[in-house]
Amino acid sequence: MKPTLFVLAAGMGSRYGGLKQLDGLGPNGETIMDYSIYDAVRAGFGKVVFVIRHSFETDFRTKIINKYENVIPVELVFQELEYLPEGFTLNSERVKPWGTNHATLMGKDVIKEPFAVINADDFYGRESFSILADSLKELEGKTNEYCMIGYRVGNTLSESGSVARGICEVNSESYLTTVVERTHIERVDGLVKYKDENDTFVTISDNTPVSMNMWGFTPDYFQFSEEFFVKFLKENETNIKAEFFIPFVVNSLIESDIIKLKVLDTPSMWFGVTYAEDRQSVVDKLNALVEAGEYPEKLW
Fold first, then answer.
1. Are 104 and 225 in contact (CB under 8 A)?
2. Residue 29 class from Cβ within 10 Å (0-12 exposed, 13-18 middle, 19+ buried)?
3. Which of 23, 48, 36 is nearest to 299 (CA)?
4. How far is the C-alpha of 47 from the C-alpha of 73, rounded, in Å?
5. Tens of pLDDT along 27-40?
6. 106, 244 Cβ separation under 8 angstroms
7. How many helices (H) and strands (E) does the chain have?
8. What whole-number distance in Å separates Cα of residue 84 and Cα of residue 90?
9. CA distances for 70 relative to 39, 56, 93, angstroms
10. How far apart are CA 156 and CA 278, in angstroms?
């Protein structure tokens, strides 16, 4: 069975200033998602599932899904604030989305095979999809064994400002021991540095693996996520800004010795539109890849 690609596309992108999932950046108006789907198809994924919000469903179907109808099977699922486990009701003051692992949970009824999770607005690169697809095919029929693409932090920085990344620690067999979200990472005087809890810069190697939200799971992950979401909601009853992120669940499962997660190294350069100022740089990079023959000028 071919793995599924699960694309998180429900976020608005507040720093960027609009629906960056739908922004045409390629030579013929292709979105970053278009390149991800193209890479996923040639890597051997068999289906794409998008999680979006009802508010932009019509626009999304017209601009995005119509392109893929004859390329790969596509399904839509929806993430809304009120989609909570039985017994929980939405705090009327809550406006912030519940986070990446809540979005991932929305796929539980339509995904029954090993699957990858990616962000809609990140460019991950051809090699990363190939590496992840191969690993997911090996996980068919297994449980409690996951994987993720570990980008080299030096390949993921923005020229427009600091970035947030999940810095990974791995053991001698490349299994993840912990992932810690660092919210301020940048290159300073030629070195990659992050600010720690005391606002002090800490230098790390360019090759330090970081999570760019490119995960590989088997369907049992949904059950763990449901259990942890109930726990999360109980612990954050009064916190209307708390978010339920994938690394929170992954770290908890690793600490409890319930799962193993392999960190897969990739040579791919990551890029994306974290800031509006990044847009032209992304356009230039996509054009360069097309000119180099990595992608056809017109994807579909």
1. yes
2. exposed
3. 36
4. 5
5. 998 989 999 999 99
6. no
7. 8, 13
8. 8
9. 16, 22, 43
10. 13
How many angstroms separate the CA atoms of 82 and 87, rounded? 12
Distance CA 27, CA 39 (A): 17
Q: Where are the alpha helices (DSSP H) in 27-160?
A: 32-43, 57-60, 66-68, 100-105, 126-138
User: Tokens 């847009």 — which residue?
Assistant: 279
What is the model's pTM?
0.93
Nearest Cα to Cα of residue 35 among 19, 24, 46 = 24
CATH 3.90.550.10 for domain 4-291: yes
Q: What span, in angstroms and rounded, lies between the C-alpha atoms of 163 and 277?
A: 13
Compute and round to an integer the Cα radius of gyration of the chain: 19
Tokens 């960056």 label which residue? 20
DSSP 8-class letter at 155: G
Q: Identify the sign of the CA torsion 228, 229, 235, 236.
A: positive
Query: How many whole angstroms separate alpha carbon 143 and alpha carbon 196?
Result: 35
Residue 47 pLDDT > 60: yes
| DSSP structural state of residue 268 | P
